[in-house]
What does this fold into?
Amino acid sequence: MAGKNKMRREKSMAVYVYMGVFLFVILFFFGCYFAYLMLDYQNINGVESLTMMDYINILRMLTAPVGSVPITFGLILTILKMQVTKLWWLYAAGALCVFMAATSNTNDDYKGMEQGSARWADKYDYKLFQDR
It folds into this structure.
């Protein structure tokens, strides 16, 4: 009975770590770009706080940004502050996706084995079920 699951594969966490790092980098650069577009939109239209319609207009600017805000060191610090204060939900959603992928069990852990409580018969079972 001890050797029942000898062929069972162990999960490798390295794939999930690489996926999480890759997703974080992609989300970070997208968040910086989106924060730059928010600052650019505020500079063009002269608004202080953004409404939902302003966010829709910012999404329209994704493909053709105006670029009226010059990129300086102070702007980069402002963008990084916006990452923490206004775009935290982007990272929370990414962390949730990685958590769900890491905890879901979609792999075939018993590849090549019969699933359930079946086991190979030993000498005693073989004699028990043998025709007489």
About this structure: The longest helix spans residues 14-45. The mean pLDDT is 79. The helical segments are 14-45, 52-60, 73-85, 88-103, 123-128.
